[in-house]
Amino acid sequence: KKDLVVLGIETSCDDTAAAVVRADGTVLGDSVVSQHEIHQQWGGVVPNLAKEAHAAAIDGVVEKALQKAEMNPEHVDAVAVTTGPGLEICLRIGFNAAKEFCKAHRKPFVAVNHLEGHCVLARMLHRDLEYPFLVVLVSGGHCQILVAEGEGIYALLGGTLDDAIGEAYDKTARLLGLQVGGGGGPAVEQLALNGDENAYDLPMPMRDKKNCNLSYAGLKNAVRLIAETDAGRRSEDIAASFQRVAIDHLIQKLRTAMKWCEARQPGRVRSMVVCGGVAANQRLRSRLTDVCSDFEWKLVVPPPRLCTDNGAMIAWAGIERIQRGILDNPQLLEVVSRWP
Ligand code: KG4
Ligand code: ZN
Question: Which residues surround ligand 2, an ion (CB under 5 A)?
Answer without folding.
Answer: 309
